[in-house]
């Protein structure tokens, strides 16, 4: 661990770590637990937007490391502003999350955000700022690659290779209402497609986008190139068969992966 990260963590005192189940928050939780004089509180929120695998991963790591873990419901699905899916939907998601964590503990809240996140459109960081959330990796100048390297140094080999996995709501095009059944469909599609790909680990990207124009499965370039046309047709039919009623007539297509392509600002993808 770098001296700068050690200094940041030491200066925070007892903290509550918001643990989503991704590489950043799991790595932060692990290093904080192993080095802090007083064990941190880990808080994980469950909702239709959080894949079950993420929750299982958090529970497994908590059992392995001996964390003090609280699993809560953030309550974002009771917030009409979140369900309406504006371009800053993430602001309302994180507002509900941090509010729920604050009701559990008065400790400073820390997140796994890193320097790479600052270069993207992240309205959730505005919510974090309003709630006084600290970002130790940002303060210690850690990039995503550095977080992955730290995870390996900590013996978290499988965690270090996890692909990026934003919440399931990020797959729904701006302005399309967020529905639990839509997110369950998205998750099922991504698992189905992933089972048919040879690419694994951090390099793999599978996103099922729900757009006004239809269902688009975005893949990293290697996966897309390795998926023959016949396989795409077969997968497309299987995907269509799983679609909820509101998407029953939506066409299914495959395309190259683009970060944040479900967000629309002024009618253009962001």
Would you write up a description of this structure?
This is Adenine nucleotide alpha hydrolase. It is built from twelve helices and nine strands. It is an alpha/beta fold. The protein folds into two domains: 3-160, HUPs (Rossmann fold, 3-Layer(aba) Sandwich); 168-269, GMP Synthetase, Chain A, domain 3 (2-Layer Sandwich). The strands form three sheets. A four-stranded parallel β-sheet has the order 3-2-1-4, with helices on both faces. The chain has a three-stranded mixed β-sheet with strand order 5-6-7. Strands 8-9 form a two-stranded antiparallel sheet. β2, α3 (52-65) and β3 form a beta-alpha-beta unit.
* Level-1 CATH class name of the largest domain: Alpha Beta
CATH superfamily heading of the largest domain: HUPs
- Rough shape? globular
The proportion of residues forming helix, as a percent range, comes to: 40-55%
Q: If you compute it from the alpha carbons, what radius of gyration comes out, rounded to the nearest whole angstrom?
A: 19 Å
Domain module tally: 2
Q: What is CATH's topology name of the largest domain?
A: Rossmann fold
């Amino acid at each position: 661990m770098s001296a700068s990260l050690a200094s940041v963590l030491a200066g925070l005192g007892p903290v509550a770590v918001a643990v989503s189940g991704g590489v950043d928050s799991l790595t932060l939780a692990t290093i904080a637990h192993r080095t802090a004089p007083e064990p941190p509180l880990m808080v994980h929120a469950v909702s239709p937007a959080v894949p079950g695998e993420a929750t299982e991963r958090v529970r497994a790591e908590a059992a392995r490391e001996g964390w003090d873990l609280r699993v809560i419901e953030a309550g974002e699905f009771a917030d009409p502003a979140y369900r309406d899916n504006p371009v800053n939907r993430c602001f309302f998601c994180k507002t509900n999350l941090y509010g729920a964590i604050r009701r559990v503990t008065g400790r400073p809240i820390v997140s796994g955000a890193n320097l790479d996140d600052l270069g993207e459109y992240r309205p959730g960081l505005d919510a974090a700022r309003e709630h006084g959330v600290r970002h130790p990796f940002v303060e210690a100048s850690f990039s995503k690659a550095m977080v992955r390297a730290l995870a390996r140094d900590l013996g978290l080999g499988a965690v270090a290779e996890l692909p990026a996995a934003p919440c399931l709501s990020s797959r729904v095009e701006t302005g399309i209402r967020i529905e639990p059944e839509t997110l369950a469909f998205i998750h099922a599609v991504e698992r189905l497609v992933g089972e048919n790909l040879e690419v694994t680990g951090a390099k793999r990207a599978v996103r099922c986008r729900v757009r006004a124009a239809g269902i688009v499965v975005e893949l990293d370039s290697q996966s897309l190139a390795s998926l023959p046309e016949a396989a795409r047709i077969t997968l497309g039919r299987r995907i269509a068969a799983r679609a909820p009623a509101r998407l029953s007539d939506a066409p299914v297509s495959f395309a190259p992966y683009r970060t944040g392509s479900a967000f629309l600002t002024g009618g253009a993808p962001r």
